């Protein structure tokens, strides 16, 4: 475990979490956009969301996902990217952290979408916002957690394969 | 054009320039014989990987912003534009997938501070080729 505290390893793990976290958030969004595009559902979604909110929503997803990925990978990789923990434990972490990420994103997204409503100052809009928040805080969070766990499992598997590819290349010379 | 959409489009093109320029520079640095200072290549590659992923996040964010500029008027998937968009998005996914092992190898090298890995010229060369392909698709999409 001594290597884990070496400054080189800390820097390395920061870069890996940044790359993998961005990979997860980006690939998730592009895949969703692609699926919506080929099924013809994209225009109605785009029509219902203004550009500033869309940018802010992705920024929230990006931040929470990099943070979750960093927590998942904490101490997971040793020198030359060797596994420092059993793979089932790492996948378990990816699922749990994915769930937390789903919930964290929902909270962030709720705040981003609430800003223009609060700024509008209309009291009826603010009442329906509060009702919506109550729904968010209960069913929404559970749903987001479950979806997040599933996505975490999926990306945990993809990452494991990509890590194997990187190790194979590293050892090939 | 709406100022926000103009800004988003500018950032989308600037992000492309960062990704392509860095990949070309590293391809040259890694492939150079005799090598330049090895440490230099490792350090530049490590910094590039940070910038690369920042730019990929930016491309996704501003790419969806570009789609948003079309709103309800977005051409359907079976139109010529729609087909090009589908191909471009698949290519972007391929670039992201291919880039993870590349970053992992650079990161593993930075930890040991050793000479750059022998696969780097191939990895950065392939990155450059994929990005030039996406650039071609993107220009065809926007101006073809
Ligand atoms: C590596 C990633 C990417 C690169 C290098 C790239 C590059 C470009 C370039 C150079 C343009 C042309 C800009 C112009 O001439 O005005 C463009 C346009 C565009 N891009 Fe991307 N892009 C990338 C990813 C994405 C993603 C992920 C999306 C969508 C989710 C996207 C959606 C668009 C759209 C909608 C346009 C405008 C097309 C039009 O006006 O007809 N791009 N891109």
Number of helices of chain B: 4
Low-confidence stretches of chain A: none
Order of helices and strands of chain B: HHHH
Number of domains of chain A: 1
Number of helices of chain A: 5
Find the biggest chain interface: A-B, 50 and 53 residues
Biggest beta sheet attributes of chain B:
none
Secondary-structure class of chain A: mainly alpha
The kinds of small molecule bound in this structure are: protoporphyrin IX containing FE
Topology:
The complex is a heterodimer of chains A (173) and B (144).
Chain A: H1 7-39, H2 42-47, H3 51-73, H4 87-120, H5 123-170
Helix pairs in contact in A: 1-3, 3-4, 4-5
Chain B: H1 3-31, H2 38-70, H3 80-112, H4 120-143
Helix pairs in contact in B: 1-2, 1-4, 2-3, 3-4
The structure holds protoporphyrin IX containing FE.
Protoporphyrin IX containing FE (HEM) is lined by residues 9, 12-13, 16, 19, 59-60, 63-64, 66-67, 92, 95, 134-135, 138-139, 141-142 of chain B.
Give a brief outline of the structure:
The complex is a heterodimer of chains A (about 170) and B (about 140). Helices cover about 85% and strands about 0% of the residues of chain A.
């Amino acid at each position: 475990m001594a290597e884990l505290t070496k400054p080189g390893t800390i820097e390395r793990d920061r870069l890996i979490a940044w790359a993998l976290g961005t990979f997860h958030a980006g690939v998730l969004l592009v895949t969703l956009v692609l699926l919506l595009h080929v099924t013809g559902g994209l225009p109605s979604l785009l029509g219902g969301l203004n550009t500033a909110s869309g940018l802010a929503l992705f920024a929230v997803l990006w931040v929470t996902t990099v943070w979750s990925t960093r927590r998942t990978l904490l101490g997971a990789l040793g020198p030359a990217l060797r596994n420092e923990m059993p793979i089932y434990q790492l996948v378990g972490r990816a699922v749990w952290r994915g769930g937390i990420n789903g919930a964290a994103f929902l909270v962030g997204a709720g705040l981003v979408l609430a800003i223009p409503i609060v700024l509008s100052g209309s009291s009826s809009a603010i009442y329906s916002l509060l009702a919506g928040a109550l729904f968010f805080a209960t069913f929404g969070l559970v749903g987001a957690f479950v979806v997040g766990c599933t996505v975490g499992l999926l990306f945990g598997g993809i990452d494991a394969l990509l890590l194997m590819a990187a190790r194979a290349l590293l050892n090939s010379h | 054009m709406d100022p926000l959409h103009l800004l988003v489009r500018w950032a989308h093109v600037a992000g492309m320039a960062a990704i392509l320029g860095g990949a070309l520079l590293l391809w040259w640095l890694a492939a150079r014989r005799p090598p330049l200072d090895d440490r230099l290549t490792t350090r530049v590659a490590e910094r590039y990987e940070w910038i690369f992923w920042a730019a990929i996040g930016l491309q996704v964010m501003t790419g969806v912003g570009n789609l948003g500029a079309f709103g309800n008027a977005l051409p359907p998937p079976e139109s010529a534009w729609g087909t090009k968009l589908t191909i471009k998005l698949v290519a972007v996914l391929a670039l992201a997938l291919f880039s993870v092992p590349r970053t992992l190898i650079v990161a593993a090298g930075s930890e040991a501070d050793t000479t750059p890995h022998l696969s780097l010229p191939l990895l950065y060369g392939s990155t450059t080729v994929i990005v030039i392909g996406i650039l071609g698709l993107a220009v065809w999409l926007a101006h073809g």
